[in-house]
Amino acid sequence: MARIVRFHEFGDAPVLRIEEVPDQPPAADEVQLAVEAIGLNRSEVLFRQGHYPLQRAQFPSRIGYEAAGVVTAVGDRVTGVKVGDHVGTVPAFNLSRYGVYGEVATVPGSAVALSPPGLNAAQRAAVWAAYATAYGGLIDVGRIDSTSRVVIPAASSSVGIAAIQICRAEGAQAIALTRTAAKREALLALGAHHVVVTDEEDPVERIRDVTDGAGLTLAFDPVVGPLFEQLARASAPGATLVVYGGLDQREAVFPRGPVLGKNLWVRGYTVFPTVSDPATFRRAQDYIWGGVHRGTLNPVVAREFHGLEQIGAAQDYMESNAQIGKIVVRVAS
């Protein structure tokens, strides 16, 4: 038997239950791992609440996209990993069926990647979702280079920090957005060239100021809401607005004037195409491995919780928005 986390109804964190299920071998196209650490993602909170736009829970539902662990069994059709390898999982599966919150996780073989060496278990649980998301949005879609002026809302999230580091690695200007001044110094220390505090400053004026009036060339936006119209107004002609989430539940007004007047590109994006296409995912892995090896990409762990019993507390902490980096639950010491 294996202990996993499931939920039987939508709601707050207490709906998450630790349950025992039979430990079954992986199918031919699956990989099983002993979970060392779980990296939390905002999408999992939305999934638990019934608000996740990309998937709907089927009860009883598993949960969790990202875990680091050691491979314990490999299906006959799986290549590239073997028993004993340290791997991490990526968001490329049905959460209800394959969720990784547990002591043991079984996932499709296409949803695992070898962990870069030199990282501890918590860092290994903080690599793939954040850096693959930022890689796809900034490199594959955004095509950033040394001339890019990139605005990063929700910059203190694990994806936001990954985006700052990738901008730095590519020579692009990283402009971090955060709601309160409490995170300003931390974001500067993590590599942001400028920090805009949206509760205290006019984002449009401040972005124009730090770009010497030129405006942003790329926004990498998981927030949307009223901020979306402000990003469009702060854009340079021909800029791209990459939308990869909807953290702000308020209605977003489509900025028709700036979009048409500046010939802006508006692009919806999720990490799924990045990790589901083998060639694209291989490029992402090579890029991330190389960045970790050179020290330009460095997973930031905001806080560690210990034991599956702390899953609810960890999700509550995520909802507090106090974190800077990835929230991790250690399952095995």
Characteristics of this structure?
26% strand; alpha/beta; 333 residues; seven-stranded mixed β-sheet; 16 strands
Model description:
With 333 residues, the chain is an alpha/beta fold. Helices cover 31% and strands 26% of the residues. The protein contains 12 helices and 16 strands. The strands form 3 sheets. Strands 3, 5, 6, 7, 8, 15 and 16 form a 7-stranded mixed sheet that branches. It has a 6-stranded parallel sheet with strand order 11-10-9-12-13-14, with helices on both faces. Helix 4 (128-141) packs across helix 5 and helix 4 (128-141) crosses helix 11 (278-294). The mean pLDDT is 95.
Q: How far is the first residue's CA from the last residue's CA?
A: 20 Å
Helices, by number, come to: 12
Low-confidence stretches: none
- The Rg value, from CA coordinates, equals 20 Å
Order of SSEs, N→C? EEEHEEEHEEHHEHEHEHEHEHEHHEHE
Largest sheet: 7 strands, mixed
Question: How helical, in percent, are the residues?
Answer: 25-40%
Number of strands: 16
Oligomer: single chain
Beta-strand residue fraction:
25-35%
Query: In one word, what is the shape?
Result: globular
Average pLDDT: 95
SSE-based structural type: alpha/beta
SSE blueprint:
Layout lengths: L1 E6 L9 E5 L8 E10 L2 H8 L11 E2 L3 E9 L11 E4 L5 H4 L5 E5 L3 E3 L6 H4 L3 H14 L7 E4 L5 H13 L2 E6 L5 H6 L4 E4 L5 H8 L5 E6 L5 H7 L1 E9 L12 H6 L3 E4 L3 H5 L1 H17 L6 E6 L4 H10 L5 E5 L3
Parallel strand pairs: 9-10, 9-12, 10-11, 12-13, 13-14, 15-16
Antiparallel strand pairs: 1-2, 1-4, 3-5, 3-7, 3-16, 5-6, 6-8
